[in-house]
Design a protein that fits this description.
The structure holds two protein chains of two kinds. By secondary structure, chain A is an all-alpha fold. Chain A has a domain of 218 residues. Chain A is built from 21 helices and four strands. In chain A, helix 5 runs antiparallel to helix 6. The longest helix of chain A has 32 residues. The two termini of chain A are 21 Å apart. Chain B contains 24 helices and two strands. In chain B, helix 3 packs parallel to helix 5 and helix 16 packs across helix 23. Classes of the chains: A mainly alpha, B mainly alpha.
Amino acid sequence: MNGESLSLLPALPELILAIGAMALLMLGVFQGDKSYKQVANLSILLLLVCAVVMINQVGGEREVIFGDMFVTDAFAVFAKTLVYIGSAVAILIAGKFLAEHNIAKFEYPILVLFATLGMLIMISANNLMSLYVGLELQSLSLYVLAAMNRDRLRSTEAGLKYFVLGALSSGMLLYGISLIYGFSGTTDFDVLATSLQGENGAPIGVVVGLVFLLSGLAFKISAVPFHMWTPDVYEGSPTPVTAFFAAAPKVAAMALLVRALINGFPGLVVEWQQVIVFVSIASMLVGSFVALVQTNIKRLMAYSSIGHIGYALVGLAAGTQDGVQALLVYLAIYLTMTLGAFAAILSMRRSDGMVEDIEDLAGLSTTNLPMAVAISIFMFSLAGIPLLAGFFGKWFVFLAAVEAGLIPLAVIGFLASVVACYYYLRIVKVMFFDESAGAFEGGHGQAVSAVIGVAAAVNSPVSFLLIWPLVGAAAWAAGSLLF
Amino acid sequence: MSFLQNNLLSLMMIMPILGAAILLIIRHSDPDIEKRNIRQVSLLITLITFVMSLVLWFGFDNSTAEFQFVEQHAWIGDDISYYIGVDGISMLFVVLTAFLMPIVVLASWDSIQDRVREYMIAFLLLETLMIGVFTALDIFLFYIFFEGGLIPMYLLIGIWGGVNRIYASFKFFLYTLLGSVLMLVAVMYMYLEAGTTEIPLLMNHSFDVDVQKWLWLAFFASFAVKMPMWPVHTWLPDAHVQAPTGGSVILAGILLKMGGYGFLRFSLPMLPEATIEFSWLVFTLSIIAIIVTSLIALVQEDIKKLIAYSSVAHMGFVTIGVFLLNVNGIEGAIFTMLSHGVVSGALFLCVGVIYDRLHTREISRYGGLAVNMKIYATIFVLFSMASIGLPGTSGFVGEFLVLNGSFAYNSWIAFLATTGVVLGAAYMLYLVRRLIFGELDKDDVKAMPDLSLREKLIFAPLIAVVLWMGIYPNSFLDPMHASVNALLETHFLTDTSHAAADQIGTPAGR
């Protein structure tokens, strides 16, 4: 099996990305920080090239290389496409912000590229070892990104917090992996899947290891009860970095979790399903209730993303192909909502710099109606109100849950979404019903405006036309996992 | 013509969207001219939609219970489709929606001066969604329209509402959403169980009796809030009082009808056993609603609040009628909904007229309007009488049919419901006495001018319809017969041939 798969083609995009990122690093080093613009543009181009190569050359055929460590299939193509989009947009919207805060260093796009590379490996990981390698490459890049604004206390605090807690979770993850390896004798997903099936079930050590593994991964997707870092890191990091955190790494970690559980531990569905159901419910509830009292919009978005991870996990909790398909649809829609919302936050500028309080949005509808409408679209979409894309995401995940017989989970999820709806509505209220607190300065750059515009259009009722192709792609992707 | 025939409902939904798009590009250097143009375009668009609804009515075949003007296009996968059409139950609601919209635009002509463009766009989009609710034949599509309407209404209350508008808008939104998400779970279950989202197919699918109860309760949670039924009606007085006049008219005229329509479209045909099982619950709540809210209405100091509570009481009649499961009950319920849509809409417009002049809704600030606003007083008394259910007005026919049906079912229900008629007369007459009659002793009230030409134009069609519905109700009852009979015969095995011919003739032949 190993002998014939020496082809590097399935990993071609990753190889291009790795070599390209290092080349750009050299370029940056030799030219200094004035090369930021050049490096950033080339990075976006590089991501685009990798995405095209992936779609054209690799395709959705399942192929395993590097001694079964690395797998590409339709699922990987779908998730990686989302990651490419998330990363490219994060670089695209950052320019103006970084320049104004004097942190427009060429390291930013380079770190995003390396984080992206880590994510791609995570998505393609077919072995607990490659899983860990990808995860660490991604995490280390993210720690540095969080602390990028190193002269600002909040940013360094965010980086340090993220690093310490992240290291803890990596420790748990490794401990879990070692238990699984010790009791089953393998780290390969395919071998794990076959060896753990059978009459006797799995040894208790594997189950304990699996729980540790899940804990470590729950940290990465910021699911309750491992979510504590999220609000602080979101608030402290520079806003473009937060936008990046909220989008691409969530998609990658979620895809990783799905592949690990569905491909690696199909025999232990009963065991991990309980954990996922609990984590999902807890995330939905915490994401809904704690966000009610937030006044900083980035913290609010942090809790909102915790809640949304809970909704996406509902699809995984179903444990079916429909569930995974729903999860992928949800992630795609979540990505557009989140990127749009953060791009909108980047436009909240006054003469004395960026503002981040919800109250600063007051009366936006009178000073900048298109922006207010766009933000309202994001908020209603995040709240999952019909007419907007967010509703389709909720519909499919909860449909999968109901199909799997998890009706209480669906009811709790919907009730949590009503609670969450309150704080999304509050933002709309502040923008439309309150007296103006003064106009924003504008000048956030065309890239940010374009991202807001496209994201708002995609989330608006235009999504009625887009939803079926998206569902089709997700079905194609989910079908490639071994059910 | 055949293109129009085949796509009439879609065109009716596209028209307001098109209008909203036109409003977006209307620009003029003079803001007053710009506002005028926006209003005129809105009026034109709503009138065109209304004319199309008349085409719908005239093209409607009364003799069949089948869905008509059906359009179906594939949408999401094999199951969920864009599938619309009307039958005798839904057709008149579409007409009602299209009828009230131009009136709402006219009513907002002078009273809305801020953000006219956004206001009209919100109303036009709301019209599309409301037509969608009544025509959707796919349960997923229905849910999208049903819930999507919350967004424009939330903005209407919140932006153009009264002092306490924020509280009211949040309460309106979250209350109705809470009820609806439970329905959504039931919708999902039904979709998975029956393997289809098409309403006509779901109607023929017989669900397990135990499951039906849960599904019924989930639907009930949504429709009861929307209706609204006691004790989940408390959002309505707040929303009504705070909403701008146009918003109140739409809220009372059409949005409240979605609950009753939902019962008829979903609960009855899809979950017949559970419907029979739980009808006692509906009767109990309805009778409490009729009596309690009528008593509450008696002590209100705020005109809009009083009318809002009267709406809850009237909706009590509707729910009783729906769950009587006989022809008179259901047709009475539909007729009451249509009549209430026109009458309560008209009453809110009446309130809007004097609110525009004095900027208060407190009853005690007025008095003796019959002296200086003679035309207004006449119109107000007429609509009050229609609300009370005076024979010759639309209110009578619906209440009579419902009470007639309830006597056939259980005389106690009829007896208790009739107390609502008495109490209804009490609070409306008390309101009329305080508002219209009495001494004209307040200087600012004396200075109020009578109706302007625009206001007369608004009320003229409403008066005509109220009298038409009261004097010759068969125009409105005829389209219903086939569908209502089919509903009862198919799902409740009721023999309607005799009852329909006999009892329907009674009010009509009067």
